[in-house]
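Work Package 4 report. The design task specified in the project plan requires that, given a folded chain encoded as structure tokens, an amino acid be chosen for each position. We show below one input record used in the internal validation round.
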């Protein structure tokens, strides 16, 4: 399926955009390819793009004081997202965005994104639903971190999104589940 069709499918998953809406929207999306391990956003930069991953994956993560990666979110295709706090506030980010594997995506820049929110009711609805999904996801992730054991978090991920475990390195998966790589290896071997 061509990249643009994958983008349309992803957009329509969130809001039922009609053909006229899509004719207005699509010119704002810039396609690009990120090579494996490339950084899309460095810590301290302002996030100026919202991403739509059509092949591959992007992840957002922090570096702890001790130097460990702490993965907040993994966007496996088809998916969308960004360093949302920086994108919304247009302030420097504490997060890093990278592509753990070769990835194809579309990006829409902040100015175009916000102008569309003001001028197209369907895009405003898309933005609201995106924020609701992000809030729900983050709340559920925090809940699992504070209420579930490492084994239960691993089992939950295996049930809800096994592609993350199958696609990404143990280092990334362990940082996403907030556990040591050794713990993850032990859980995977059972």
């Amino acid at each position: 399926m061509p990249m643009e069709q994958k983008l349309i499918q992803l957009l329509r998953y969130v809001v039922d955009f009609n053909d006229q809406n899509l004719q207005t929207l699509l010119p704002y999306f810039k396609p690009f390819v990120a090579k494996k391990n490339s950084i899309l956003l460095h810590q301290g930069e302002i996030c100026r793009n919202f991403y739509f991953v059509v092949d591959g994956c992007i992840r957002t993560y922090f570096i702890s004081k001790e130097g460990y990666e702490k993965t907040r979110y993994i966007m496996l295709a088809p998916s969308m997202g960004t360093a949302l706090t920086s994108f919304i506030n247009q302030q420097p980010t504490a997060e890093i965005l990278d592509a753990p594997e070769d990835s194809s995506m579309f990006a829409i820049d902040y100015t175009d994104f916000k102008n569309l929110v003001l001028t197209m009711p369907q895009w405003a609805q898309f933005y609201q639903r995106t924020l609701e999904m992000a809030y729900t996801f983050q709340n559920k992730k925090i809940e699992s971190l504070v209420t579930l054991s490492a084994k239960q978090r691993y089992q939950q991920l295996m049930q809800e999104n096994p592609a993350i475990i199958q696609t990404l390195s143990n280092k990334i998966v362990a940082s996403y589940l907030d556990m040591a790589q050794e713990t993850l290896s032990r859980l995977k071997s059972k």
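The first helix runs from residue 3 to 14. Validation will be extended to a larger panel in the next phase.
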